[in-house]
Specification:
Blueprint: H1 2-24, H2 30-35, H3 41-50, H4 57-69, H5 83-118, H6 123-137, H7 140-154, H8 170-176, H9 178-204, H10 207-214, H11 219-257, H12 262-271, H13 275-303, H14 305-310
């Protein structure tokens, strides 16, 4: 446990070094991008001093890292607001979208995988494999456009601009995130179902399942108490990777549905060369990914007793 936390901290340090180094290679000046080609020299000098642009690289990195540990990500050049404030304004929308999409992955992917394992023989198994391949191959933004075409333009069940702020209520907020969450989760549902099917089929052929059947244990009890618990051990790793992909994939889907989340904020920061804002968002995404993998390791230990014994 201690080693895993230490590895996560070291990973975060390496990520900060890499992020800082990459952003130093970007051509152009964010100060000139904000003030124009012929800025006031005094104002330009003040901004360069405020953002430590004239300091040595090591000093700038140490200053930036020190501010990060004090939960200060700097001040956006474009919006002239603290990055923390901008993130807090957009964070509920992105987190809501990611959690809603992951709930779809769990509620649809796992039952579909179990059902596919029961119906694995014949043409039904081939149809399921084709569906999974299609789900993995289609990018999330394309799925989003198909959902808009079907549910918004053809059936007219939802408006095209379906997003509703959380301030107007939880149910309207979730209703507005329904199509974006399905678009983000589509690939994850297919991947989860495929891995669950393979894992369940592998467990069904093992000796302990045959022994339970010979003892007269009901199939439902065997599935819930024996097969699923062991079959979910390798699936947990895939679920962790899917959650990470949902976080990154939601950035594109936010653009399609005009959701004011972290993704739209990141794109606007890149377009305006707002290095402070983009660095802050990248640090946030990296931290979420690192914490997600740490929690995945802990969950893996809780499910598989062999890992706890090794620890």
């Amino acid at each position: 446990m201690g080693k895993r936390i230490l590895y996560s901290i070291l990973t975060f340090f390496l990520v900060t070094i890499l992020l800082f180094a990459v952003f130093q290679l970007i051509p152009g000046s964010p100060v000139l991008n904000r003030l124009g080609l012929e800025p006031d020299p005094a104002l330009e000098a003040a901004l360069r001093s405020e953002y430590h642009l004239d300091d040595p690289l090591l000093g700038r990195y140490c200053s930036w890292l020190w501010d990060l540990f004090h939960l200060d990500m700097g001040r956006s050049l474009r919006y002239d607001l603290p990055v923390n404030q901008l993130l807090l304004q957009r964070l509920p929308n992105t987190i809501g979208l990611a959690l809603f999409a992951f709930a779809f992955v769990l509620l649809l992917g796992i039952p579909l995988g179990v059902l596919a394992a029961k119906l694995s023989k014949g043409k039904r198994g081939a149809v399921f494999n084709g569906f999974c391949q299609l789900g993995v191959a289609l990018p999330s933004f394309f799925v989003a456009m198909l959902l808009i075409l079907l549910f918004c333009l053809k059936l007219k069940w939802l408006p095209v601009n379906c997003f509703v702020s959380l301030n107007k209520g939880l149910f309207p907020f979730l209703r507005g995130l329904l199509l974006p969450a399905l678009a983000v989760a589509f690939s994850g549902i297919s991947t989860t179902a495929r891995y669950v099917r393979s894992s369940v089929l592998e467990e069904m052929g093992k000796d302990y399942v045959l022994t339970a059947r010979n003892k007269g244990v009901k199939e439902g009890v065997i599935l819930r108490s024996h097969i699923l618990r062991n079959a979910m051990i390798p699936v947990v790793t895939i679920l962790g990777m899917i959650f990470v992909s949902i976080i990154t994939g939601s950035i594109v889907v936010e653009q399609v549905f005009s959701i004011p989340g972290i993704g739209m904020l990141l794109v606007s920061g890149i377009q305006s060369l707002d290095i402070v804002l983009v660095q802050g968002i990248c640090v946030y995404i990296s931290l979420v990914v690192i914490v997600a993998y740490l929690l995945l390791d802990l969950l893996y230990m809780a499910i598989d007793p062999r890992i706890r014994i090794q620890e």
